[in-house]
Amino acid sequence: MRAPHIERPMLESYWRSFMPVAQKAVVAGTSTREFILRQLALLSAAALFVFVLSLTYGLDLSPGFF
After folding, report:
1. 35 is a domain residue
2. The whole model's pTM is what?
């Protein structure tokens, strides 16, 4: 089954309306300090997630167990 065809002008108009909003949300108003703090927070969250996953290694979470 093929994906529905999207007309190119419609897609281009979507990107032209979306990109300024994305630039304002991501790029504008972020200082170097805010950027570094955000990246450190994301790295810490990822490390914590992996740590919790490593703690549950070998734990039987199958539906029949409950």
Report:
1. yes
2. 0.48
